[in-house]
Automatic annotation (TrEMBL):
Residues 2-91 form the ABM domain. InterPro entries: ABM_dom (IPR007138), AI-2_Isomerase_LsrG (IPR050744), Dimeric_a/b-barrel (IPR011008). Pfam families: ABM. Transmembrane segments: none annotated. It comes from Glycomyces rutgersensis. This is ABM domain-containing protein. Coiled coil: none annotated.
């Protein structure tokens, strides 16, 4: 399984539009990407303009297909006007375990 943490920031005056763009990207990803196991966004506790996306993918091929998909390219481009700074991305190869 591939896990992605994507840290993104909205310009304060466009926070609501940015959040709506994230919702649209989430919906299109869940609807179109069969290898997507999880695709969720949260707002940071200490910064209302900061969001984190936590993604889980069946494998690297599924993630790469998502990154190349027209809905992802268009959704990401639509967010560009509202971004405060570049996205920071961490990608992990992970194995779920039970406690």
């Amino acid at each position: 399984m591939i896990t992605v943490h994507a840290y993104v920031w909205a310009r304060p005056e466009h926070r609501d539009a940015y959040r709506e763009g994230l919702r649209a990207l989430q919906a299109s990803t869940k609807a179109n990407d069969a290898g997507c196991l999880r695709y969720e966004f949260w707002t940071a506790i200490d910064d209302p303009d900061a969001f984190v996306c936590v993604e889980a993918w069946t494998d690297l091929d599924a993630l790469n297909a998502h990154l190349d998909a027209p809905h992802h390219i268009a959704g990401s481009a639509a967010l560009d006007a509202y971004r405060a700074r570049p996205t920071e991305i961490e990608i992990y190869q992970s194995t779920p375990i039970s406690l």
